[in-house]
DNA sequence: GTCTATAGTGGGATAGAC
DNA sequence: GTCTATCCCACTATAGAC
């Protein structure tokens, strides 16, 4: 295995960041190759499917990153209420650290491409399902009834996504913090 | 006053629909003028500020439409729990009626433009604030304490937006329906 | 108020050398 | 694996006639 980061990985990483920041249509392949530092001629070699394929792999990278972040965050406490609440508070803190200028993972690509690219829509769908599963698993481990845990996993995911979207738009972490505050009510 | 719809209104209405469906960058001014039926040369006469100004007025139109829809929906019952729950259920039903292909109001433009156009960001922010106020007012009328009503208004807004985004991406109204189901828990 | 033409830019994608 | 050149297309915006 190579120690150095190869061109393909650099392209995916940069694409992942730029798509999240600027959205799908506003991000050009020129900008991606330039900022990635990858050779300019290598894009269509690694991604014969062009922009769509690159976006697909970028979504998968973002999804894995976020998914790991959720699972790691939920390990902070055996109590699911404290763990999930703490996780959302962490997101709020992280949001403020970047001045609310970091973009919203997955959501931009999901909204822009769900109706025009079924592969991209499915990738975003899979991402969200994995997020939900992470919450659901935590609740199952804590003894929640199966169906209840599944439903709450989805609802928590919706709250976090919605709060992220609102905090981003308002330039203010209040929605994220308020969602964190309501977690105990929801999980009572 | 003119009985017929003027060109400016037709442009705003079409822009509002297309931006919601396709997003900001994927929607061209050519398509808007064509589908609106407005004279092709009239766009920059009515909107000297170009695409940004048109989008601004489109966001305001969408915002007013959604805001009225919320207020109207919340009038269905004096009980805030039933009213809000019924409203979210109505959204879910409406979502399914259009096969989940109607796009998400405000969110697409918010995500695509918040970092590149402060006027558009503020328009989206104002839209969300109005949505939140509608929920908050309902809770205040029902006797909820001021601060609690404000916080819940924001949280309900985040849940609806998040559920809309997830339902749209998953092509499934389940997130919206599950959020409706949790409203009584949240507002207990 | 509306029309046409066009400037000027940048997009995604391909071909063929190396 | 990488590079350069290039094609074709779409976009926003402006100028100037009517």
Question: Could you describe the 3D structure shown?
Answer:
The structure is a homodimer of 188-residue chains. The first copy, chain A, has 188 residues and is an all-alpha fold. Helices cover 74% and strands 0% of the residues of chain A. Chain A is built from 9 helices and no strands. The first copy, chain A, is elongated. The termini of chain A are far apart. The model of chain A has no long low-confidence stretch (mean pLDDT 96). Chains A and B meet through helix 6, helix 7, helix 8 and helix 9 of A and helix 6, helix 7, helix 8 and helix 9 of B. The structure holds a DNA duplex (18 and 18 nucleotides).
Key attributes of the depicted protein:
homodimer; 188 residues; mainly alpha; 9 helices; DNA-binding
Mean pLDDT of chain A: 96
User: Structural class per helix/strand content of chain A?
Assistant: mainly alpha
* Spans of at least 5 consecutive residues with low confidence of chain A: none
Summarize the largest interface: chains and residue counts: A-B, 46 and 46 residues
- Helix segment tally of chain A: 9
Distance between the first and last residues' Cα of chain A: 49 Å
* Gyration radius from CA atoms of chain A, angstroms: 18 Å
How large is the share of residues in beta strands of chain A?
under 5%
Please tell me what the overall shape of chain A is.
elongated
Major sheet of chain A: none
The sequence of SSEs of chain A as H and E is HHHHHHHHH
């Amino acid at each position: 295995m190579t120690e150095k980061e190869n061109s393909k990985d650099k392209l995916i990483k940069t694409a992942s960041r730029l798509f999240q920041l600027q959205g799908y249509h506003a991000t050009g392949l020129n900008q991606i190759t330039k900022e990635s530092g990858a050779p300019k001629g290598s894009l269509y070699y690694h991604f014969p499917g062009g922009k769509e394929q690159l976006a697909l792999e970028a979504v998968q990278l973002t999804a894995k990153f976020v998914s790991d972040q959720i699972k790691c965050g939920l390990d902070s406490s055996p109590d699911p209420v404290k763990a999930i609440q703490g996780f959302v508070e962490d997101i709020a803190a992280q949001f403020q650290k970047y001045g609310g200028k970091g973009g919203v993972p997955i959501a931009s690509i999901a909204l822009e491409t769900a109706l025009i690219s079924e592969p991209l829509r499915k990738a975003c769908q899979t991402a969200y399902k994995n997020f939900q599963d992470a919450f659901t698993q935590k609740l199952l481990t804590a003894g929640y009834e199966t169906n209840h845990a599944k439903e709450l996993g989805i609802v928590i995911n919706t709250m976090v996504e919605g709060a992220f979207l609102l905090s981003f738009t308002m330039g203010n972490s209040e929605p994220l913090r308020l969602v964190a505050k309501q977690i105990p009510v929801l999980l009572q």
